[in-house]
Amino acid sequence: MVFTYTTIRSPFPVLCYMGLDKHENEHLIRTGTPTDIWFHVDSLSSAHVYVRLPFDKTIEDLAEETVEDMCQLVKNNSIQGSKLSSCKICYTEWGNLKKELVGMDVGTVGFKDYKKRLLRRCDKNKEIIKRIEKSKKQVTWDYDLEHEKYIESHRLWKKGENKKKYLKPDDIEMFDAQKNQVDLLNNLGEGDSESGIEAGLRGIEGVDFMKVFISDLGGGSGEGGEDNRAEWKVEWEDMRVLEEGVKWLRSRGFGEETREEVERGYGGGGEGEGGEIEELREAEKEVLESIYGEEIFKVEEEVWTVELQDYVPSKLFTPPVPPPLIVELNLKSSQYPFQKPFITLFGGGVPFRGLEDLNASLKEWGEEWEDRVGEPVFFEVIEFLKEKVEEWKEEEEKKVKEEEKKRRVELRKLKENEKEEEKPKFKTEMERREEAKQRLGGFINESGATSDVGSLKKQIQKDMEQQSRKGDRSLVDDLFN
């Protein structure tokens, strides 16, 4: 059971909810979402109150009136705080909450980063409290189901945002057309007044499937036949002809090594009993499922995967919309957590060279692993990779901007040189004629020409044709005119 409130002031829709007691708070801590903001009276016992924001909003988008209403609500639901005329309220993102499995009382939390904790003074305001409490409702709350609903809603929202962000309007239209036609073809055989085949054919009438196909591959060739497909897309298409084992390695940023050579680099460490290993893995798996949910954290045989939900591909590597970025833990023939974890990264529109860089970062992290033998570290590595992916993405975008800046500087210099060449060489006609005389004198000395004017002119013209010195003709003509 939780309490919900519908009169919290906000410029955009929000969901405000509060745990019934400390046991309910435990469930709320476990199944919170990245867009939840947690409120609590600082240094005093109080209810845990959350406000859930839209997918595209963060704590920085909270309006002043929203924060004030939340502070009044949490203060009023504190036995000690409600008696005070004013008190401090602490609020932070759900992702900053830290819950230790051992050593913490039921319903209590800590913080991963105290710098991200915000404090605000709250003076009692009976009018606000009265308005908020009027909308209070006690509702049945299936924690895990609500969490799954959130994940699915976020997935659909993100899919729509990516489609708008990384596809052109024409591509979106054709993408939707393709999906609609696939849905129709999947339903062949259904219908009353007409057969499924007729309905399917009627549905696909007028659709240019070649355009759909090219759009799906990333746009085909650009002007002049230039290949404008994303780097990752070209690499993936080139990998089609490779053997499965080689394809697996290349898609994860490994070069000429074999699978055995790669896995050999993850040996070492201690040894654990088979039962102990399974027990530790099962405990870690339960924690990961509670953090990410079954839609994000998946287990297939002896491979664990987590999709990085907050990752947004760089525009440098798209379109088309790439597959999700996946972190993968391979447990086959592994003694993890008593052996260094074999963790790889793939997808997300990250090209091969990027995956190589990220693998190098993982190796650096692995050098410190010896002190963590026997500990579950997959969550820690996921968070580490999130940071490294963003750092790498920012560095690549910075390089592109610098190259673009350099190219513009070179282009500007080229244009300036062209303008310089177009400028008249001589300020006055006298300077021009003086230059011609000097050149003519030098030419006479070189060729041994006679002093006869007519013969001299013919001799000069003949020699100029032989030496391809046509640029001097106008100067010479001036001297003889």
TL;DR of this structure?
This protein has 481 residues and is α+β, with helices and mostly antiparallel strands. The chain is built from 16 helices and 13 strands. It has 4 domains: 2-141, no CATH class; 151-216, no CATH class; 267-398, Ubiquitin Conjugating Enzyme (Roll), CATH 3.10.110; 429-480, no CATH class.
Would you kindly provide a written description of the structure presented here, covering whatever features stand out?
There is one protein chain. With 481 residues, the protein is α+β, with helices and mostly antiparallel strands. The chain folds into four domains: 2-141, no CATH class; 151-216, no CATH class; 267-398, Ubiquitin Conjugating Enzyme (Roll); 429-480, no CATH class. It has 16 helices and 13 strands. The protein has helices spanning 22-30, 64-76, 126-134, 143-166, 169-186, 196-204, 209-216, 231-238, 244-250, 259-264, 274-292, 352-366, 378-422, 429-447, 453-467, 473-480, and strands spanning 2-5, 15-19, 36-41, 49-52, 86-93, 97-98, 110-111, 118-123, 137-139, 297-300, 303-307, 325-330, 342-347. Strand 10 (297-300) and strand 11 (303-307) form a beta hairpin. Helix 2 (64-76) packs across helix 3 and helix 5 (169-186) packs across helix 7. The longest helix has 45 residues, at 378-422. Residues 411-481 are annotated as: Disordered. It comes from Triparma laevis f. longispina. Residues 411-438, 460-481 have a biased composition (Basic and acidic residues).
